[in-house]
Amino acid sequence: MSEMAYSEPEKIQSIDAEFLAGHRFPYQEDISLVETVDLDASTPGDDINWLEDIELLEENGTPAVFDRYSNSFIKIYFPIPKGRENEIARKVLMTHLQTGNSYGILLKEKHCKFPQPELGPWVANSKIVGTDWKPPVLEGWEAPMH
Amino acid sequence: MAAVGEQAISYDARGLSEPDAAVPEISEIDGTSAEFDAHDLSTRQINLELRWLINEQGVTDVTVRNPGSKHSLGVGLLTRCKITFDGSLGYFGCGIIDGPEVHIKGRVGWSACENMMSGVVVIDSNAGSLTGAAFRGGDLVIKGRVGARTGIDQKGGTIIVMGSAGSMNGFMMQRGRQIICGDVGHGLGDSMYDGTIYVGGKVRSLGIDCVPGEWTDADTEFIERKFRIYDLGAPPELQKFVCGKKLYNYDNLEPSERKLVL
């Protein structure tokens, strides 16, 4: 679990996926849970498309992959075979997105403002969310005339 | 006095005048494919029709006839699907998409595919300035020429231009790759932070902190793969340009700043 301050003025050190979720995910600790991910099939076009830019990085000394949909790192705790660093990072990220565990996905149902598939381009035929969004109303406030 | 052609426009090209527009539901749907004529539709109606087909009707392959160079078409589509525009698009076409594979059988105006997250867009002809602005991921193939500042603020993905490009290409580029097969104008890669630009033709001048890079086997594999996938023929002999990394030091930045370019 991340070391992180909940309140000011303490310095925030990091926000990673497990902090946002409140727990670690099994695929962060077990390589066998990501080995079967087909990266070509999971992405548009005839190669890995946007995953070309995804590489294994490091966060607070731990191998990690960045999830741009929640602006957070997913740390990887299992040993990564040499020469497969980026492939494994991409598979962990894709598993995180396809299982709907990315914090950005969790926010969609309540907050997205127009209809869209909950699991975006990562899973076919996922539920459509955002069909009934209404702007919040501040009690006692009236819209200006202009 | 109205500009030439202005009198013929019977809709708000910005799409701002119809906050309550209804889905036209005019498409001819055949299984998972659909087709509709956009000639008499406004920007908002066309985009509503596209979303209705893809999100609610289970359609995965749409052809839009007569897009009429209207602005902001095909934007905000966030799932895997195939879309063909049988004609040209105006400004800001296919912006903020995540997943679609789009074929545009014509030209596009400024800022096509800005903020694109993933997917494939193939444009058969020329594109305007700021093509692929803030591009985040996926492949953008322009078979004609492009204007100035292609891939400005690019943060990922691959932009391939078969023709020539204007000035300040890759300005403030932060990640990703550009392949320009023709000539490029002044200030290539000016103030780029990272990323790679390959150029097949003449470079009028390099921008600040853009320097020649060392060619590797990974470059060859990447170029050949993209040309094969998009059936672009044999790649030309390319020069590689990268960031000289004299202008900044990421290590000195806050962690949150670092995330902005990932």
Rg on CA atoms of chain B, Å? 19 Å
Total number of strands of chain A: 5
Helix count of chain B?
3
Q: Give the % helix of chain B.
A: 10-25%
Structural domain count of chain B: 2
Low-confidence sequence ranges of chain B? none
Number of strands of chain B: 12
Would you give an account of this structure?
- The complex is a heterodimer of chains A (146) and B (262).
- Chain A has 146 residues and is an alpha+beta fold.
- Chain A has helices spanning 17-21, 85-98, 103-111; strands spanning 57-59, 62-67, 72-75, 116-117, 128-129.
- In chain A, the strands form two sheets. In chain A, strands 1-2-3 form a three-stranded antiparallel sheet, with helices on one face. Chain A has a two-stranded antiparallel sheet with strand order 4-5.
- The longest helix of chain A is centred in the middle third of the chain and has 14 residues, at 85-98.
- Chain B has two domains: 23-125; 138-230 and 237-262.
- Chain B has three helices and twelve strands; from the N terminus they run E-E-H-E-E-E-E-E-E-E-E-E-H-E-H.
- Chain B has helices at residues 43-56, 217-229, 255-259, and strands spanning 28-30, 33-37, 61-65, 82-86, 98-104, 118-123, 139-142, 155-161, 175-180, 196-199, 210-212, 239-243.
- Chain B has a twelve-stranded mixed sheet, with helices on one face.
- Chain B is elongated.
- Chain B starts with 27 loop residues before the first strand and ends with a helix.
- The chains are: A alpha+beta (146), B alpha/beta (262).
- The interface between A and B is medium-sized, with 23 and 30 residues.
